[in-house]
Amino acid sequence: MEAAGAYRFSIFLLFVFAAVVFIVLMFLTAPYGRHARPGWGFSLPEKRGRQIMESPAVIVIAACLFVGWDRGLTPSFVSALLLLFWEVHYIYRTIIFPSRMREGKKQFPALLVLFAIIFNTFNGFVNGYHLFLGHARYDLAWLLDPRFIFGTIVFVAGFATHVNSDRLLRALRAPGETGYSIPHGGMFRYVSSPNYLGEIIQWIGWAILTWSIAGLAFAAFSFANLFPRALANHRWYRRQFPGEYPEERKAIIPFLL
Ligand code: NDP
Questions:
Q1: CB atoms within 10 A of CB 74
Q2: How far apart are CA 111 and CA 43, in angstroms?
Q3: Which of 123, 162, 219, 250 has its CA 20 to 30 A from that of 4?
Q4: Which atom of ligand 1 is nearest to the CA of 36?
């Protein structure tokens, strides 16, 4: 299949994948972290699993740049800048976030690692194709376009929200601890899973700042994956800390849900 056909097919698959994942996760919470349970087969040490499953997102999009370059499609300055936005997130998610996790003995199901590898490969490809192989040509004027400016503000706000929420969660445990307590501060004042909220906001920002169907597919998938889990986390906190958990706190949308 030629690259343009593979791109269109992958975009279609991502939207289908998002719809299926949303429906499945509304009924079945992914079995890792607080929702881990036996019966999901082979597993990997959690940190290693997270590093492996996020790596394709770092590599595939950058490979698209080099393939494009090899075909004479010199990347514009703005496309390279957008790649930097992406890589800052994924280097954080692949290297920094796992390396800062409190050392425990938790395992991560290999099946979920496999799903994430498949998703990150497709997603890296469609976003990389859009930036470096397709017809999108971002020239310097894009930096002053309201879509780029607004999208970048949304992207940075989302990134800051989930990184800060990750930090607050990490601070709940001393090294080696594996238990759970009620998080406070930052956007935890309003919702139980501000890390997921920040991540969804960030990729909506990406869809706006790249003004692309590839970005939209990723934002849709992030919502489909994280929204049901945020509802499950919220129910879990209420069950786990009856009478203690802040009444006014919502699951993922401040003041609403
Ligand atoms: P969680 O909030 O479940 O966990 C993050 C870390 O904090 C884990 O180490 C977890 O430990 C620990 N933790 C969570 N709650 C508590 C608590 N109450 N007390 C003490 N420690 C706690 O996030 P995920 O692991 O699901 O996701 C991690 C990041 O990856 C998030 O920022 C998320 O947005 C992002 N992500 C993005 C996806 C996407 O589709 N774009 C998909 C999935 C994740 P433990 O592992 O022991 O539970």
A1: 10
A2: 8
A3: 219
A4: 48
pTM of the predicted model, to two decimals? 0.96
pLDDT digits (tens, 9 = 90+) for 198-253: 999 999 999 999 999 999 999 999 999 999 999 999 999 999 999 999 999 999 99
Average pLDDT taken over every residue of the chain: 95
Residue type, 204: I
185, 167, 155: which is closest to 96 by C-alpha? 167
Cα dihedral sign, 113-115-121-125: negative
Pocket of ligand 1 (CB under 6 A): 33-34, 101, 106, 162, 166, 169, 172-173, 178, 180-181, 183, 195-196, 199, 222, 225-226
Closest residue by CA, ligand 1 atom 22: 169
